[in-house]
Structures are given as structure tokens and as C-alpha cells.
Amino acid sequence: MEQTLISNLSFEWVALRQGYTDTGSRSFCWSGWFLFSLSFYQFLHYFSQSFYQLMCTYLDLMTGISFCLVLLICETLFRCSAGFLPLMNFEYFDDMAVFESSHFDSIRSTNTHKAIPSLITNRLVRAQYKRDRSLYHHHCGAQNLVSVDHLQPIPTIISNRCEQLTTKSEIKPRYLRPLKKVNLRSDYVAPEISLLPSVYYHNMRSLTSEKFEELKLVADSYDIIMLTETWLNKSKSKLYELDNFTMHASHRATSRTGGGVAVYTRNHLPVTKLDQYSTPHTSAYWFVLQQQNQLPVIYGNIYHPPGLPKKQHEETINHIVSTLSKSLRKHRSAKLVLCGDFNDLDTTPITTMFPVYQIVDFNTRENSRLDLVFTDIAELINHGCKRRPPIQTNDHCSISLPAINASQRPKYQTVQKRLITPSTKIALSQDLASMTWDAIFQEDDVEKQVEMFHSTITKVFDKHCPVQTARVPVGKPCITSPLIRKLSRAKQRAHNRNNPAWKFLAKLLSSQQKSALHTQTNNNINNTIKGSKTWWQNIKKLTGEINKTSQSPVIYIEDSWHSIGEFTSKLNRYYLQDHIEVEFPEIPTAGNSITVNELEIYHLLNDINTHKANHSADFPSWISKNNSHLLASPVTYIVNNILSSGHYPSRWKTAEIKPLNKIPNPVKYKDMRPISLLYHLGKVVEKVISRHLKAELPTLSHQYAYTRALSTTDALVKFVSDTVTALDDKTVVANQALMLDFSKAFDRMCPKLAIQKMLAMNVNTRIIQLVRSFLSGRSQCVRYGGVHSDYKSCFIGVPQGTILGPVLWNIFIDDLAPAVNFVKYADDTTLYHSLRTNEVSISDSTASRCTISLTHNPLQDAANYTSNWCRENKMLLNTTKSNQITFSLKKEIASSPITIDATDIAEVESTKLLGVVFDKHLRFSDHVTTIIDKCRPAFHAISKLRKAGVDDSSLALFYKSRITPLLSYAAPAWYPMISKQDRERLEKYQRLCLRVILPNVTHTDERQQITGIDDINVQLDISCLRYVDKVRSNADHPLHNLTNLHSISSRSGRRLSTKSRTALQSKSLFYRFV
């Protein structure tokens, strides 16, 4: 009981401290203070029970002055025991007002059986004393307090506008007036909610493609959309993203269909996730809206299914109470809006412990009120919520909450864009053809040449493709028509009037939307060239991959709000926080000269990828590509001048940083990856330098990234082959691997050390001069939402997005060569070593597990060597992302952890290396599960495209483009090792996809013949055979020697028959396919 009083009285104090009173009242609630002080006094045990009983008895006898004297005594004692009471300034009012709960709790005494109004006055329903003081002259014995479960509700007194007592269930929102706050301190100003977005809530009973089309129509009128019973999972969610909205979802923590909640918020709303709750039954999502100069508003969306046991009810209530308590502690002045389908859940604890009202006063499903809305926002309590028709013929009606002072969203917005048509492109090319470029040929200064070239092209571009102002629709639904809009309005009117015809109108609306969708699909997809750019754009729009977004004018990051200008400036400073100016080493006399001819430049210009983003001050790359025959001559002259002078132009050394999110909702600056947007002609020069630099370099050791004819598949095959060969040896107990991750590898690379390493490799000094000029004097700014930060100088690192960056990184990391086996791919380095029987001692050995200890671990030496290399080269290892794993044939091997810089590296049961999941026994069953899960969004996209009317050939092409690459990625590394059961899982998943593509065809063989999709196991076998042929035919391939040793056993060195090989080695790639 005391614990209950602790929770309740804490909320009571918050309510009284905020000073809610009735409008115009001037009388202080002496009786409320007396009862509150007395109960708190009882809780603290400052007085004996006898004195408490004496004062309660005296309460029946006192009148007038004696009552005030007793209260004064209690107030003084309370001031002594709780030091926060002096903060209060007492106010006096005309009538004695009482702050009471909507459900008074009757605390019964076994002796007197009398009741007093509850002290749990969190929900503040105004009450008027009406001169009847006898109502408050009740008492009870403190020693006979009973459990809260036995408390009985008693009537609540409302405003003196009402003639009779009424219970909370009879109170309607229109009777409730705004609660006026009293300034309890002279420096305290009570903020108000003056701006609130509109909210739409609905129980969907499964979110399908047909319902989603109607939801698009509804979404145009609201800012926040809350849905329950979405029946979605993680792979399906992406298919149901709304334009100009951000989707948040919490799915059931089970594979069973049902449940789940989803929230859509307008992109301009500054919302932050608070919590996400998911069990096999209940789902909830919580977020806070923090608009500038406004109180924060905490929103919750909950689905609690019916028919659950009492324990599940308690868990849901505990989650709601704990989440709200935690959120209110973080956002102390926040308001609450809680929506959801609560079914048979008892919501009394919510209304008891928090100052909220339930404002839904109509049935939401037939004769039941299952969908509820709780809030403490006076404006919403006044206006109430409105009953809206459901989506299609759903049995739950929808609920809308009105916006408060929200400006009406414009239907159109003004944008500026250039007039680019085929005729303007032809006119631009004709203008370029008439130019002589004599000014550039007569100029020797590289900087002036580049500036003249850019200014000339920009003038011609502005002349033929001027900037024009256009009006475009905002948030227009994908598929609509006058008939669909009329049917939607007619359905709403019929539902509001309880006209049964609304169900017929709902079916007719769904039919019209489906027909319009099929018509659009037939025009945009089925009748266009398969695989063309237009075809893919329409496919992505239909599957939700293209989601037009608008960025918020304010950004919440690093626990504070920033304007876009502040955000870009702070983010740029964060990226450059470790930058200190470095001195470059002296470079000897220039070496052999480098030149390019006009034909080489012509091919480089013609190979420009026009789809990649460039610097905003750059002219479009399609001008260089389409007019490569006209621009090859001046560009060749400029490039040769750069190569001969060893000076890289300053304009092309400026970069715009585009931050890309590493996680869906970044909360820290480190969660954003900096990508550099550069000038496209600068990349042409980089390609020339890179080509000559690679020709000067020796063979790089164990590096598989950014190397011609090598890929992640080669690195993985090397690692798997070495591990299998080691485990096949009887003297090897296990193979231990250490996966290392460098923190900010490209951003931390020291240019001075990179140049020193190039000098040590005897690279042409003229190329080194160009690289030095490329790395020195660089500057960058951050561009986000059309806003640029100031340019800042950057002294270390190499920009991500450059052509030279990967080559320089390979040079920089080449001397990292520990004394164990290792594989390097970009900034991912894997060290591994075989543990032999003479190096370890085995203890605690059982049939399935054993523990080993090593007197000397070479892998630990390699880790120490790598750590020292990082210190010498000013790099940093990310020990939290690094991990170790021990591979063995049968037993689980436990060993002492590897330590780097006094930090133990976590040992894991499975780990992901270059996109492939490795387990301790190299069975790759977890990897098969992972790739099937990755394919689920594409599978659901096929289902959605089928319902939209996309033809069979388009669906087959979509499968080959989206699902086949996921299933076959790096197949030579893992596919030969998987079991028969995993092969059947892959085949079963492919058959499932084919059934969706061709639902009317019965046999799998016929489906494969129609679609041209071979059996997945056949495809993977062919992929492995082609890889082996590629390695065997290339004598320079680093894995070429493995193709010649496929029949040599690692145990004895002699040739063995297939039967004498171990089961593991007989599965490996080269033993199986060579």
C-alpha cells in the first residue's frame, strides 16, 4: 500500500505544483492540502498512528478558524519534512475548489466504513464546493488502509454549470473547459500548445495494396497517421511508404500473421523515436514531436489483442506506465496523445496515474468502444475527436484529431528548374561546335585555363537552358480521378449518416481504384521497353522505392535542435575536428613526363556516368558526354598542362559533402557518412593519374579491393580455402580468425605518410608531385537541404568518392603485413592462424565442447603488431566492431580472448565478413537464412506488382534483377559447403517466387520454361564452375595455384581418391569443381 501511495502521491504533487484551477476561482483548496499533507505525513512516519487518528477525529469537530489552525500546523510540519514546499505561493479564490480524479477512490475503514475523496488527484476534473463543507468532513483510520484492488469509485463533482452530480462516464468533452494555470512563482510562465498537427487513427485489419491506395487519398489531409493491426513485417514495410511521409513501424515479435502498428509522420515534422515495444501479441510505437517554441508532445500508438491472459494485460499496462514515466522524466513539460486499439484491456491505471482524458465518446466497432484516445491537451479535449469512415469495408471506424492553428498546406509549390529538351541540347551542341578555344590554347596558367573553360561552358548552358519558374503539385496522390474523389466523399457522407449504402460505395471505390491502377500499370510498364530507364522508374514508383521527401527546416541531432544552416556548419566542423596541418616531404627532381592524346580523352569523356551527382557549381556532365568530340581538344590541352606542371587546379579540389545516413534515424554526427561531390572533369584527370600510378606500383600483398579482376568473392574464397585446408590437417585443433575494422579509415589517412610510401616504392616523381598537389590545399563544405556551410580547409584524409582515393589507400596499407595469414579488402583486414596440438593444452573436454589454453598465441602477436602499425601510421582500430571466431570441425572450442590496447575482442558464434555469414563449423546455414530474409522485400514487391497488373515477363525480369543477385552473391565461397537441407531451402524459396509470378501455371518445370529462370541450384553450380575456370585460366590470379592442388591431401602430401578425402575438404570449391 505504501508503494502505491508513493507513486500516486508523486503525481499528486506534480498536479498541485503546476497549479491547475477553475477559471475565475480564488479560493485555495485547504481541505485538499490538509488531506494531501496528512497522507504524505502518514507515509513518512513522522508521527505516530495515534496522533494521526487524533487529528483525523478532530477534523469532524473543528470549524472555521480551528480548521485553518490545524492546517497551518500541518503545513509547517510539511515544510520541515519536504523542503520544496516553500517554493509555493498560496493563492486565494472566491469559492473553495477541489481537485479531484474522475474516479474517486474510496479508502474504506473496517471500523467506520466511511470514505474520503481520493488523494490520487492526477486527472484534474474541476469541482465547485457549492457551500456544502460537510462533503469534506469525512475521515478514516490510518491503520486500516486496504489494497487498491478494493477501492470503489464514487461520483465526481463537475462545474457549477451542471445541476447534478455525474460520473466520468457521463461527462462529454463538450462540457469540459480549458484549465487555466496559475502562476505559482513570479518567474514562472506556463507555456501553451499553440500549434499541433492533425492526426488520423485507424485499425486496418491488415494493410493490403487495395487499402493502401485508399489510404493515399486520406493521407493528403493529415500530418500524422497512426495505424494498428497492420499485419506487416520488416520486409513488407518498404512497400507501404507514403510520399512526403516518414514511416515508423513496430511489428509482432513472431512469424505469425497479425498485430503490428505503423506511424506515418510528415517529413517536415521534427519527431524523435522514444521507444518501440514488440511481443508475440502486443505492439507499440512511441515518439515525441518537438516543434520550435512549443511544448513537446509525446505520441503513442498501441495495439493490444483481445482474449489474452491477465499476465499479458499486466505486461502491457506496465509497459505503458513505464514508458510514459520515463518519457515524462526526460521531457518534463510534455503533453500526451495516446491512441490505440485496447480491446478488453483495463485502462483505469492509465487514467489514474496520469493527467489524461479519454475523449472518444462513440462506438468504434459495432456496439463496442475498442479504439481509444487519451490526452491531456485542453484544446483536443474541447474539440474532441471525430468519427470517420473506415478504409474499404473495415469493421472499425477511423478517428481524426483536429489540427491546432496549423497553416493550410499549399496544393502547389513554386520550383525553379532549367528548360532542357532535345531541341535545346542540339542548339547547345551547335554553339559549342562554332567555338575555337583560342583563348585557352594561348594561356599557360592551369588555374586560368580551367576557369575560362568552366565560364565558357556555363554561359552557353545558361543561354540555351535558362532557369524557369514552375508550379508543381504538393503531395498529390499517385492515382486519382474526379470519379474516385466523388466516391470517397459520398462514402464519407453516407457513413456519417449511418446509411448502410456506405459499404456499397466503399466496394465501388475500391473497384475504381483497382481499375485505375491497372490502367496506369498497363500504360507505364507493360507497354514500355523492358529494362529501360523509364520502365525501372515506373517499377520503383509502384513498389515504393522512389519516395519523394522534403527536409525539415530544423534538425534534431546531438540532443538539440538546429536550423539547417547550423547543422551543416557543425557537421563540417565535426568532420574536420581531427585535422591538423601537415608538412609534405620534399620530392626529388621531376621524373619522366606524362602525356595523353586526344583519343584517350575522347573515350574518357564518352564514358562519363551522367547519373552520378556532382558539385553544385559544376555544369552538367551530360554536356561533356554528348559533346565529347567537340570538347576533347581543349580538355586534352588542359590535362597535358596539368600533367607537365604537376599542379592540380584549385577549383577541382573543392568538395561538397553530402551526408548519408549509416542508420535509419541518426542521432549523432558519427551516424552520417561523408560523401564528396566533385567536378566531373576533375575525375577525368584522376583517371589519367590513377592509370599511370597503377602501372608504376609493384604487386600489392594480399589486397583484393580496388584491384583489376579481383573482388570480394576472391577474398572470401581465399579465406575459406585456407581454413578448410587447415582443419583437414589432423594436427590442427582449430583455426582462429580475427576480423579487424579501422575507424574512419579514409578520413584519417595521413597524406605525408602516403607520399613517403610512394617514394619508397620508386614511383615516378612526376606522378608523386601530382598526388601531392591533389592532396594539398583541399577544402570542403557540407550541403544539405539546399543549404551550404562555409568552406573549411582539410589537411588529412582522402575524399570518399574520388578515383584516386582507393588507389592511395592500397598504397598506404600495403606495408601492414603481420606474421600470420591475412586477407585485406579495403579497410577490412582479417587475420587467421591454425592452432596445432603441440601449441595448446586442452581442458574441460566433453563430447561437444572443450577449452584450450595457449602458452604463446601467434594471433595475439599479430594483433599487437597491427596495433603498433596503427600508432605509427596515425590510424585507429575500432575494437567494438572487431571480433574473433574459432573454427573447428565438431567440438565447440573456447579459448582466451585476443586483446588489443587493453581491450578484449569479443568472441562470437557467427560473424559477417564481406557480406557472408560465417559460423564456427563452416556450414553456412545462417548465411542461407540471411540471404532469404534479404530477398523478402523483393518477394513482397513481386506480389504487389502482380496485384497491380504487371505482366509475367516484367515480373520475371524483376526477379532476375533483384532476387537472383542476392541468392548468388559470392556463391563460390559458401555454396559448395552447404548441406542438402539448405539447398532444398533455396529451391523451395525459388518455387514460392515462381508461384507468385505465374499463379495459374501448375508445374514448376513449366514455370521455369515460361520465365526462363533455371533451378537455383543449377544456377549456383554454373556460377562456381565459371569462377573456377576464370581462376584456372589466369596464371596471374592469386588463387591460381589452388586449382593445381585439388587432388593433394594436406595431411600426407600424396594423391588421394575421392573416398579418402575428409567430408569437409571434399565439399570445398576446388576439390568439387576442378
What do you see in this structure?
The chain is of the alpha+beta class. The protein is built from 35 helices and 39 strands. The chain has a six-stranded mixed β-sheet. A six-stranded mixed β-sheet has the order 11-12-13-14-16-15. Strands 23, 24, 26, 27 and 28 form a five-stranded mixed β-sheet that branches. Helix 10 packs across helix 12 (446-464), helix 17 packs across helix 19 and helix 23 (751-760) crosses helix 25. The longest helix is centred in the middle third of the chain and has 26 residues, at 501-526. It is globular and about 90 Å long.
Please summarize what this structure is:
With 1074 residues, the protein is an alpha+beta fold.
SSE layout:
Blueprint: H1 2-18, E1 20-21, H2 30-44, H3 49-61, H4 65-81, E2 97-100, E3 104-106, E4 125-128, E5 152-154, E6 180-181, E7 199-203, H5 209-219, E8 224-228, H6 234-237, E9 245-250, E10 261-266, E11 271-278, E12 283-289, E13 297-303, H7 310-330, E14 335-341, H8 348-353, E15 357-358, E16 371-375, H9 378-383, E17 386-388, E18 398-401, E19 412-418, H10 422-433, H11 438-441, H12 446-464, E20 467-473, H13 482-496, H14 501-526, H15 533-543, E21 554-557, E22 560-563, H16 564-575, H17 598-606, H18 621-626, H19 628-645, E23 654-661, E24 672-677, H20 680-696, H21 712-727, E25 732-741, H22 745-748, H23 751-760, H24 765-775, E26 778-784, E27 787-788, E28 792-794, H25 804-813, E29 821-825, E30 828-836, E31 840-843, E32 849-854, H26 858-872, E33 883-887, E34 892-894, E35 899-900, E36 903-904, E37 906-907, E38 910-913, E39 916-919, H27 925-947, H28 952-962, H29 964-968, H30 971-974, H31 980-997, H32 1004-1011, H33 1016-1033, H34 1063-1067, H35 1069-1073
Parallel strand pairs: 7-8, 13-14, 23-26, 32-34, 33-37
Antiparallel strand pairs: 1-6, 2-4, 3-5, 7-18, 8-10, 9-10, 11-12, 12-13, 14-16, 15-16, 17-18, 19-20, 21-22, 23-24, 25-30, 25-33, 26-27, 26-28, 29-30, 31-32, 35-36, 38-39
